[in-house]
Amino acid sequence: MIMKYWGFLLLKLAAGALLMRFVWRAILLGFQGQQRFAGLAPFGHDLGFTTAMLVFFLACFGVVYLIVWDQRYRCRSCIRRLRMPVSAGSWPNMLLFGQPRIEYICLYGHGTLKVPEFRVMKKSPDWESHDDDIWKELESLEESKR
Q: Taking the model in full, what pTM does it have?
């Protein structure tokens, strides 16, 4: 199941690379009629081409950032977006109730993602996978109330 998660990330990265390849070709096609300076490439000599390459470079990083950001908030089992953010913990009572965090869940009960709002250490969000039998967990909560 986890291979589906990483495969989807690779598919999105390949689609982003293909999109940026088309943008690269469009930029080169747009500057095709420019004369070259002493046979050199126009980068560094032509302000318009150099600016276009700067914007292209930043757009490439933006696409990769958006792909990775989207992937972090997907279920590790079914690749659907995680929903229903719930705040947990407490800012004024961090030592008593735990650090503040936002918990996202998979609508199909595959797991929970806990994203800390306050990071003391470099710690990645915690993915907690749930058992396939979602009712077992709910029944255990009901028995503990009795």
A: 0.74
